[in-house]
């Protein structure tokens, strides 16, 4: 399995609205420090090594974020940070990356993953990826599943089918079907059943395989993007990309391909995974005191419990008797949201947009 034929493609075009006010349009969640000492996109690149060296990493982002992405990832080739002129969801992102990789290394394998997840330990993650690469070389489409820890309603699920193989803590199963985010009672049934996985949104496949599948199930997309292969590596690439991308329809890779393809396997490993989708998720990743209070920055608290208090300025958060609240202070905004309600932060962003407060977005 020569590593020169394996690429990582990091999807990094999201806006991270659920992490407002820290995450902004110009600096969305993947470009800021949410968990740990590095930004989320830096951590994503780091955990791929040495399995995937930096010269085999591509990032698909937006035109507005490309310069900062290159600044944060100086180990990547500048041309490997590809800026989509407009967002067209994940199917277009996959097809674009596959065309580029197939041009650079015919038959090359690509690992597709988001820029804003937390995964540990790295060695177990790479063990699962190595198995996925091996399965993908046979022509299968590979996704990665996480054994549910609780009846979450925030994730899509995968119903596993027949076992393909299992060794060293990594199992490979056929995918029976993909399931949309369930309600709580359905999620509890999935957990009790034991035959379901959380959909991690990570994939592995040969570039030529996924392009062939997309031609079968979504030919309008591959036909539209086909000229990009010849343009890659030339001065016309950015112009060609802009001309082609603008009229494309938005469609996810799940809807365009994964719900229709037949030869799909799911790899389940022993790594812990979280998509870190909201302020609530940080309660599982940051150290709290004996009362369950997580303090970051200038914070003084008395009699508080089960709260996240984070000041990202020199202003002091002085909290008395606060319980079950997340309080986030930035230079121009203060967010106060009850624990368990942080998924609604996106609604606040929409409300600010409706008020014309684009300066806060």
Primary descriptors:
5-stranded mixed beta barrel; 4-stranded mixed sheet; Spore Coat Polysaccharide Biosynthesis Protein SpsA, Chain A; 27% strand; alpha/beta; globular; 17 strands; 361 residues
- The global form is globular
CATH first level of the largest domain: which class? Alpha Beta
Number of discrete domains: 2
Q: CATH homologous superfamily name of the largest domain?
A: Spore Coat Polysaccharide Biosynthesis Protein SpsA, Chain A
Q: Specify Rg, calculated over alpha carbons.
A: 21 Å
Structural class computed from helices and strand pairing? alpha/beta
Number of helices: 11
Helix and strand sequence: EHEHEHEEHEEEHEHHHHHEEEEEEEEH
Instruction: Estimate the strand proportion.
Output: 25-35%
> Helical content, roughly?
25-40%
Examine the coordinates and then state which fold CATH places here, giving the name of the CATH topology of the largest domain. Answer: Spore Coat Polysaccharide Biosynthesis Protein SpsA, Chain A
Q: How many beta strands in the DSSP annotation?
A: 17
Give the spatial strand order of the biggest sheet.
Answer: 6-9-7-8-10
Distance between the termini: 45 Å
Described by strand count, sense and barrel closure, the largest sheet is: 5 strands, mixed, barrel
Low-confidence stretches: none
Give the integer mean of the pLDDT values. Answer: 94
């Amino acid at each position: 399995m020569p590593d020169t034929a394996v690429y990582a493609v990091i999807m990094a075009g999201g806006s991270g609205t659920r992490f407002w006010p820290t995450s902004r349009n110009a600096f969305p969640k993947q470009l800021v420090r949410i968990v740990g000492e590095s930004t989320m996109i830096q951590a994503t690149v780091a955990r791929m090594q040495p399995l995937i060296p930096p010269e085999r990493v591509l990032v698909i982002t937006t035109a507005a974020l490309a310069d900062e992405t290159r600044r944060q990832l100086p180990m990547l080739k500048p041309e490997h940070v590809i800026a989509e002129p407009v967002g067209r969801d994940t199917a277009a992102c996959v097809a674009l990356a596959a065309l580029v990789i197939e041009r650079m290394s015919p038959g090359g394998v690509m690992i597709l993953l988001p820029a804003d997840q937390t995964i540990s330990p790295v060695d177990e993650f790479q063990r699962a990826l190595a198995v996925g690469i091996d399965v993908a070389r046979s022509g299968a489409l590979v996704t990665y599943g996480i054994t549910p820890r609780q009846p979450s309603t925030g994730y899509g699920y995968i119903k596993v089918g027949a076992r393909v193989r299992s060794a060293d803590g990594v199992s490979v199963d056929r995918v029976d079907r993909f399931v949309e985010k369930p309600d709580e009672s359905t999620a509890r049934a999935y957990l009790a059943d034991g035959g379901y996985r959380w959909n991690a949104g990570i994939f592995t496949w040969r570039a030529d395989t996924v392009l062939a599948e997309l031609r079968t199930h979504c030919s309008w997309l591959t036909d539209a993007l086909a000229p990009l292969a010849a343009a890659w590596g030339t001065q016309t690439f950015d112009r060609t990309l802009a001309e082609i991308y603008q009229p494309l329809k938005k469609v996810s890779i799940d809807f365009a391909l994964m719900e229709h393809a037949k030869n799909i396997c799911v790899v389940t490993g022993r790594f812990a995974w979280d998509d870190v989708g909201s302020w609530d998720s940080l309660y599982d990743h940051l150290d709290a005191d004996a009362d369950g209070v997580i303090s970051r920055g200038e914070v003084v608290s008395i009699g508080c419990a089960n709260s996240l208090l984070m000041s990202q300025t020199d202003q002091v958060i002085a909290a008395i008797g606060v319980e079950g609240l997340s309080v986030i202070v930035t230079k121009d905004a203060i967010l106060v949201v009850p624990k368990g309600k942080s998924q609604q932060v996106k609604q606040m962003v929409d409300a600010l947009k409706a008020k014309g407060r684009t300066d806060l977005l």
